[in-house]
Amino acid sequence: MTAVESLKLAAKRLSLHCDEAIATLEAAGHVAHATNPLNYAWDHHVQFIEQWGGLGATTLLLGMNPGPWGMAQTGVPFGATQVAKDFLRIKARPLETPPNAHPKRPIVGLDLERQEVSGTRLWNLMEEIYDTPEIAFANLFVVNHCPLLLLGERGQNITPDNLPKGLIEPVLAACDQHLREVVDIMGITRIVGVGKYAERRARLALNAGKSGSGTASDGREVEITTCWHPSPASPLANRNDGADWRENVRNVLIG
Q1: Whose C-alpha in 29, 60, 216, 254 is 20 to 30 A from the C-alpha of 184?
Q2: Backbone phi, then psi, for 187, in 5-degree steps?
Q3: Nearest to residue 188, comparing CAs of 211, 220, 210, 212?
């Protein structure tokens, strides 16, 4: 089986687990709306894997979970709609808004005009560094640790680390397993957590300490490090009009 086919199967397994967890997450009252882009936007996500998952990358950029204007619309990690169409070459497919979605956060898909800032920053920098997606994905691949969009009553984004451990841990355990599978399938030798939370999850999944490398299932050493998150809510990402953030990520990726 090819790496691409294995990645698709691993993503589908994670998607099914997340689908099964949604009712429990919403019933507990800490999340008003939990939806799964790997389900309703699978036709976009599978394009991302098929085009870019088999080019030999050994560095994995690991994000946290989708935002309502990015992966929630495109099925692609950090997937602002414009970069998804232009740089990642995702072709629009009809998407249906899940019945339990927040009424103020409908699924528009690639036609959404509002651009996710984090995704625009990240992918524009990848284009600046690598020039073409072919070169970018020969060097790195991108995965979100948790694929679920988690929203509160007002439509605010909720990150997994802000949920009770007993509630979210079964989901995160499946996400950890998926991460290990991606590492094995692609022969990943370095994980770069986009933000400290993603780095911590990688360290937990690969049995690393607070510093140093983790271990793949075959005993292979996997370096785990981090770069600043591009969120507009982060002072580091906004400092010097984003120049410091770009320098930080560039230094982590290419030195």
Answers
A1: 254
A2: 65, 40
A3: 220
pLDDT at residue 209, rounded to an integer: 83
Residue in 239, 122, 126, 141 with CA at minimum distance from that of residue 190? 141
Q: At which residue do the structure tokens 């999850």 appear?
A: 201
Alpha helices (H) along the chain? 3-27, 37-40, 42-52, 71-74, 81-86, 117-130, 133-139, 165-186, 196-205, 235-238, 243-254
Which residues in the chain show pLDDT less than 70?
none
What's the confidence (pLDDT) of residue 153? 95
Domain definitions of the chain by residue range: 3-254
Right CATH number for 3-254 from 3.65.10.10, 3.40.470.10, 3.40.50.150, 3.40.50.300? Answer: 3.40.470.10
Contacts for 215-222 with beta carbons within 8 Å, 24 or more apart?
Answer: 216/180, 216/183, 216/184, 216/188, 217/180, 217/183, 217/184, 218/184, 220/187, 220/189, 221/189, 222/183, 222/188, 222/189, 222/190, 222/191
pLDDT of residue 4: 98
Quick check: pTM over 0.85? yes
